[in-house]
Amino acid sequence: MRPLLSLAALAGLPVLAAAQPIAITAARVFDGAGRFLPNATVVVEGRHVRSVGALPAGFRGTRIALGDVTLMPGLIDTHSHLAWYFNKQGRLHQGNDGDTPTESMLAIAGNAWTTLRAGVTTIQSPGSPEDKELRDAIHRGWIAGPRVLTSLGSLSETAGTPDQIRERVRTFKSRGADLIKVFASKSIRDGGAATMTLEQVQAACDEAHRQGLRALVHAHSAEAMNLVSRAKCDQIEHGMLSDQAALDLAAANNVYLDPQCSLVIDNYLQNRAKFEGIGNYNEEGFAAMRNSEAARIGTIRNAVRTKGLKMVFGTDAVAGAHGRNAEELVCRVQRGGQPVADALVSAQSLAAESMRLADSLGTVKAGMLADLIAVPGDVRRDITALLRVRFVMKDGVVYRNDP
Predict the structure, then answer these.
(1) What is the tens place of the pLDDT at every residue in 257-309?
(2) What is the pTM of this model?
(3) What domains does the chain contain, in order, with CATH numbers?
(4) Any alpha helices (H) in 291-397, and if so which ranges?
(5) Residue 41: CB partners within 8 Å, gap ≥ 6?
(6) Distances from the Cα of 93 to the Cα of 9, 100, 103, 278, 346, angstroms
(7) CA-closest candidate to residue 397, choices 6, 14, 1
(8) Beta-carbon neighbour count of residue 147 at 10 Å?
(9) Nearest one of 309, 205, 185 to 250, comparing CA atoms
(10) Are 263 and 347 in contact (CB under 8 A)?
């Protein structure tokens, strides 16, 4: 039986998809909202959690005893780019570089499988056109991966007048976008300055809301972040060059913040040869990323202390970073000073809230979708346990259960 399970895992197929209820016991359960439960059992029936606590009397079904682990909701990464990968030449895939469409989709599917096995059961991609086929293939059960929400593309200052921007938003909606992505500042490699007017940002976010969509805005500088808050958009991406006033304004306007502590920059620097020479991946760009460390860590530290600020988990994972998502949470705790429980909440119930999925994801309680992961030991004592995921369940299906 072992070879069959191994082949299933390699193919990205579920290891266990039982028709009967499954009772999962663990030394501790974190509910995703701040509460730890000792020696608890989570009963899953179909796609949903049926109960949390003691094993129901007379239970009949499959039992999974995980032992000394922390069982918790699957991680939700609010900013990940599964369509980014390294091509056959070991370089960032750029379209017409020799990879066939089939090879590209296989690479993207591989990123999805790697991400799911690492404990990320939901991602938000702001976003690539390829995401639509990936999202739908995962939803149909053709391939294994996290559930995907995507913007299918983005808007920037080149999108035109406010009226033209509104039309672009409606076009994204008609194509099946789950959210709208806006670039309101330059890249960190180019200094991060604001690039859009308040009127442009307001048009994008207001029209997104009219269409029933959320608007996420790339904004590095304090000036760009303030545009996002004043325009009543939903979420600031990055904010690596923030100041306290910008953080306070975001909190006052109930705008979520998705800053990055380490992973995206570390990954670029570690894989420099695979990016260098493409666009602004040049000497100046890599120097800017290296020199952003103090600002990045400072943003996390200040955000943790900012009253009322909703800081969610998003990695901006690109080629080379998929499956390493939890490194970002480790950095937030170890270098950014965020308490472990708060870091987990940012990647579970708060992330679900930011994506309007709190009624089905992000917490372990009866009626919620059965997205569960387990890491060894007590995560409160060792946040790096998140890098050693042992168990993954999504929608009631077990995709990983290491001995």
Answers:
(1) 999 999 999 999 999 999 999 999 999 999 999 999 999 999 999 999 999 99
(2) 0.94
(3) 2-73+362-401 (2.30.40.10), 75-354 (3.20.20.140)
(4) 293-305, 327-334, 340-346, 349-354
(5) 23, 24, 25, 26, 51, 52, 53, 54, 55
(6) 26, 11, 11, 10, 31
(7) 14
(8) 20
(9) 309
(10) no
